[in-house]
Write a structure and sequence with these properties.
The protein is an all-alpha fold. It has a single domain, classed as Zinc Finger, Delta Prime, domain 3, CATH 1.20.272. Helices cover 77% and strands 0% of the residues. The protein is built from eight helices and no strands. The radius of gyration is 18 Å and the shape is globular. The protein starts with a helix and ends in a 7-residue tail after the last helix.
Length: 151
């Protein structure tokens, strides 16, 4: 038995490996969203390589990006804060803290541009033969290159 198995008292088997891999993938998804919000193109594209090996994975990333930018806008335009905002947006109080922080990184103009890019990519995903992964890579670069003060 290896050190990890001795430390946990568990045999290392397929189920254990899958559970650890799933947790790692979920963490990488949050890292990807964070990299896009922080405009870290290199990190975001590196994470896409691991997370979106096919169009289904890329579609999932698209949905998460769309949700995050929608929530950021919702937090930015809301007149309430804290638990009331969490209830309004359907997220936890902890998420509200990060949404408000992320909202300060984007002007309304930049959010408008970001949401426009998301609409365009969503249309392309549904109406063209371009692989979703390629569309998500291009979207990621565009979102990471958004000016903080886009008008």
């Amino acid at each position: 038995m290896c050190d990890a198995a001795e430390a946990t008292g568990r045999e290392i088997d397929i189920a254990l490996c899958r559970s650890v891999t799933t947790l790692s993938s979920e963490a990488e998804v949050f890292d990807y969203i964070g990299a896009v919000i922080d405009r870290d193109t290199e990190k975001a594209l590196t994470l896409i390589e691991r997370l979106a090996r096919d169009d289904r994975g890329a579609g999932h990333l698209f949905g998460l990006l769309e949700r995050q930018f929608r929530l950021i806008l919702g937090a930015k335009i809301s007149t309430v804060r804290g638990k009331e905002l969490a209830g309004q947006l359907g997220v936890s109080s902890g998420q509200v803290y990060y949404l408000e922080k992320q909202g300060r990184l984007y002007s309304f103009g930049a959010l408008r541009v970001a949401l426009g890019l998301l609409v365009d990519v969503d249309f392309s995903r549904k109406s063209s033969r371009v692989p979703t992964r390629l569309l998500i890579e291009e979207l990621t670069v565009d979102l990471c290159n958004l000016s903080r003060a886009s008008s």
